[in-house]
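Hi, here's the filled form for the chain we discussed.

Project: internal
Contact: R.S.
Residues: 250
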Amino acid sequence: MEILITNDDGIRAEGIGVLARTIAHMGKITVVAPLDQQSATSHAITLHNPLRIEETEPGWRSVSGTPTDCVLLSVNGLLEKRPEMVLSGINHGPNLGADVTYSGTVAAAIEGTLLGVPSIAFSLAGRSELRFDTAAHYVPTIVNKFLENRPPAMTYWNVNFPNIPIEEIRGIRVTELGHRAYQDIVLERIDPRGKPYYWIGGDEPTYEPEEGTDFEAIEKGFISITPLRLELNDHDSIEEMSNWEWEIQP
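And the returned structure, exactly as it came back:
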């Protein structure tokens, strides 16, 4: 099996190395990842700058672009064979709730799915002293289950691991996306030349304690697997609005 691995933390990140080593026995592994940190780039594609590709070691290539660029290039000809699976991660930090709309890690899985390649995004829900051993212990189980039960077209999995020791994991839960309460603020500063600049920041977001969500699963020590679809049509609204009368002025 041809497996493409990417991430948004950069090709030198610890998580991507852990992921590549963990599933090395499952097929031919090719790593194509951003040269630098690309967190929160979402589903961005580089259109106005050339992309530079460098082989950092056999089977590993860095790309001077986004995670989406990495998958797009790989599937459309960079690799000798089209990958049969895209695995993105293991992200340094969680991707829960609305985070998936910002995440470069999740965007790589989205791009793979759009291109018809089964895809999974993996994230470790911690900020420091990351327990990649816990994630590595369960990744093969999740990938095998994914392969045994291929999701429908245009569906991918978003997986989050609690940042706790292996023996404290309570199990796996299939969840839905929860809701974060963001507390973003914009900080204005003045540089040494007297010109203003800005930081987008704020306190760590909280979440609403809803049963069955990815947040609840992680909080209670469960691995969260959230199947997500790329079907964006609001069919109820389409049906309702189709019956509206529209007045068009000449």
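Let me know if anything looks off before we file it.
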